[in-house]
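Batch manifest, entry 17 of 40.
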Amino acid sequence: MAMTLRLSDDEADALRRRAELENRSMQDVARTAVRDYIERASKRDLVDRVLDSELPRYAEALRRLGE
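Output type: C-alpha cells
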C-alpha cells in the first residue's frame, strides 16, 4: 500500500542524515522505524495486559513484601 508521509523540515533532514549514514534509502529507514515502533508497542501492550490480569492475584503477597 502506498502512502504519503509528511515530515517537518527538521524530521526530513534527520531522516536523510540517518539514511546517508547507514547507506540506505530514506524509505527503508522510515519503514524500519515503523516496524520497530509497532513491535515495541505490541510488547508493551502484552505486558500491560498480563500485569492487569495477574497482579490482582498477588496483591496481598506484594503488599506483605513491601512492608
